[in-house]
């Protein structure tokens, strides 16, 4: 019997376009939505008031993470409704271990702006455990507790949560994902009390996963959510089709070992550079567009990960702007979705329709175009090559439908269900992906199993 697309995956298609435009709340309580990291390590950025207006009027972004509590930025986002996450710098963590200082910090950095500015979360430092500073690490959880206590005193603890983001360096094992565990010395001493605090305050565990830093030429497709042969976890027998899912599940496995599967995971930071050094793999605008566009679709689709199915994830792309003063390799200054003049470096589906005409024609086509292109508008279609093997075509179906594309037409009683063959169903799924990605030649490659045709494969009520 031929394998068919998973019914759960295909059922997601109806609401897929909607979740790109608005936040959705699933039973786990974390919103499946895309935010951005608003970094300011640059000398050419627009005023915060212009940035706030730009995000509100021109994009569908409704969440912003700041790396400080800049009063000009907090004032600029007043009355926008955009959810703001602010950060206490690492250097202040020892001071926050004193409750009076924590109360003073809240009075100075939260109370003057809330509720006009929709502050939803305070982060205590960034990647503190990776700093290898015993004073910072030892004071991390007490500082978080004191900030929460200060919020309780201001009757804001139910509206503003406290957390801290971690690099994946906190894991001593991550491959395969089912073997994920925290580093010895951090697990029971720091992370267990931290997770206890998060559970008690209904706050999320936040991580900064970057497939970009973990990929090579051989795993580039896997990192970019492109069609690939997948990676099997021999312990769980679960198949992974992208690196981000593997990183998330490795974190989940580590949390499970400590007994905290009920604490939600938030992606505090992830992204892909659009330019870099010649020796870096996949560093170009096209790859950045594919990663961030596919990220957007994947985390909001409700599919979840192999170990965490049926979930959406709150995720923040790094970053909003290219930042010309950041140290390090060229790529560090080119993670932005936008140039400092607020023109897109590339488009991923976050611009409102009226703003998309501002995307430079030479940039990559949108990675998050509407998932159901209007039938008859296209002059090209993507279909399987006659030489393509059935197993490869089934993987193409699983990949495309797994992204959240509406695959109901090839389900039973759907208009494209007959002929009920893997090849016919793959033709529909592959073409939907090709159209959604903007009809780029590469997006019909599918590991050399796809071919572009000018002959419309539609038939009867089955419209391609």
Keywords, separated by commas or semicolons:
single chain; 464 residues; alpha/beta; 9-stranded parallel sheet; two-stranded antiparallel ribbon; 14% strand; globular; disordered N terminus
Break the fold down into its secondary structure elements and pairings.
Elements lengths: L6 H4 L2 H9 L2 E2 L5 E2 L1 E5 L9 H11 L4 E4 L4 H6 L6 E6 L4 H4 L2 H11 L9 E6 L9 H20 L7 E3 L1 E3 L3 E3 L7 E2 L4 H15 L3 E4 L2 H4 L5 H4 L7 E3 L4 E3 L2 H16 L6 E6 L14 H16 L14 E4 L62 E4 L5 H13 L19 H15 L13 E4 L11
Parallel strand pairs: 3-4, 3-15, 4-5, 5-6, 6-7, 8-11, 11-14, 14-15
Antiparallel strand pairs: 1-2, 9-10, 12-13, 16-17
Helix pairs in contact: 6-7, 7-8, 13-14
Distance between the termini: 25 Å
The share of residues in extended strands comes to 5-15%
Assign a percent range to the helix content: 25-40%
Question: Count of helical segments?
Answer: 14
Structural class: alpha/beta
**Main sheet attributes: strand count, strand direction, barrel closure:** 9 strands, parallel
**What oligomeric arrangement do these chains adopt?**
single chain
Tertiary shape = globular
- Strand arrangement in the largest pleated sheet: 7-6-5-4-3-15-14-11-8
Tell me the number of strands.
17
How would you state the average pLDDT, rounded?
A: 87
Low-confidence stretches: 1-31, 357-377
Radius of gyration: 23 Å
Description:
α12 links the parallel β14 and β15 (315-318). The chain is of the alpha/beta class and 464 residues long. It has helices at residues 7-10, 13-21, 48-58, 71-76, 93-96, 99-109, 134-153, 187-201, 211-214, 220-223, 243-258, 285-300, 390-402, 422-436; strands at residues 24-25, 31-32, 34-38, 63-66, 83-88, 119-124, 161-163, 165-167, 171-173, 181-182, 205-208, 231-233, 238-240, 265-270, 315-318, 381-384, 450-453. The strands form five sheets. It has a nine-stranded parallel β-sheet with strand order 7-6-5-4-3-15-14-11-8. The protein has a two-stranded antiparallel sheet with strand order 1-2. The chain starts with 6 loop residues before the first helix and ends in an 11-residue tail after the last strand. α7 runs parallel beside α8 and α13 packs across α14. Keywords: Disulfide bond, Glycosidase, Hydrolase, Plant defense, Signal. Residues 380-464 form the X8 domain. It is an enzyme of class 3 (hydrolase).
């Amino acid at each position: 019997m031929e394998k068919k697309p998973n019914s759960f995956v295909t059922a997601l298609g109806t609401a897929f376009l909607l979740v790109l435009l608005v936040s959705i709340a699933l039973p786990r309580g974390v919103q499946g939505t895309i935010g951005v990291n608003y970094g300011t390590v640059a000398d050419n950025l627009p005023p915060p008031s212009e940035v706030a207006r730009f995000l509100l009027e021109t994009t569908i972004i409704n969440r912003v993470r700041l790396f400080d509590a800049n009063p000009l930025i907090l004032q600029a986002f007043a009355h926008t409704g955009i959810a703001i996450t602010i950060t206490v710098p690492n250097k202040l963590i020892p001071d926050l271990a004193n409750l009076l200082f924590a109360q003073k910090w809240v009075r100075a950095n939260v109370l003057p702006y809330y509720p006009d500015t929709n502050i939803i979360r305070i982060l205590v430092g960034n990647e503190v455990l990776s700093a290898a500073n015993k004073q910072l690490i030892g004071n991390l959880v007490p500082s978080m507790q004191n900030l929460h206590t200060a919020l309780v005193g201001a009757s804001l603890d139910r509206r503003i949560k406290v957390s801290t983001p971690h690099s994946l360096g906190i894991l001593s094992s991550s491959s395969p994902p089912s073997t994920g565990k925290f580093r010895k010395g951090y697990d029971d001493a720091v992370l267990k009390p931290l997770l206890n605090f998060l559970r008690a305050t209904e706050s999320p565990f936040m991580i900064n996963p970057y497939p970009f830093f973990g990929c090579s030429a051989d795993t580039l497709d896997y990192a970019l959510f492109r069609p690939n042969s997948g990676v099997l976890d021999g312990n769980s027998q679960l198949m992974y089709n992208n690196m981000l899912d593997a990183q998330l599940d490795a974190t989940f496995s580590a949390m499970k070992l400590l007994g905290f599967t009920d604490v939600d995971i938030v992606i505090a930071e992830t992204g892909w550079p659009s330019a870099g050094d010649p020796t870096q793999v996949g560093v170009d605008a096209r790859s950045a567009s594919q990663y961030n566009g596919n990220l957007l679709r994947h985390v909001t689709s409700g599919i979840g990960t192999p170990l965490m199915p049926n979930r959406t994830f709150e995720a923040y792309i790094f970053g909003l702007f290219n930042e010309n003063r950041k140290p390090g390799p060229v790529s560090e200054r080119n993670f932005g979705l936008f140039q400092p003049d607020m023109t897109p470096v590339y488009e991923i589906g976050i611009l409102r329709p009226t703003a998309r005409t501002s995307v430079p024609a030479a940039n990559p086509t949108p990675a998050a175009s509407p998932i159901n292109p209007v039938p008859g508008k296209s002059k090209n279609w993507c279909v399987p090559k006659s030489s393509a093997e059935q197993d490869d075509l089934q993987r193409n179906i699983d990949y495309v439908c797994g992204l959240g594309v509406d695959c109901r037409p090839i389900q039973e009683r759907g208009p494209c269900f007959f002929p009920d063959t893997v090849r016919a169903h793959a033709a529909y799924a592959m073409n939907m992906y090709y159209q959604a990605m903007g009809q780029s030649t590469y997006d019909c490659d599918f590991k050399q199993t796809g071919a572009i045709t000018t002959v419309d494969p539609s038939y009867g009520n089955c419209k391609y």
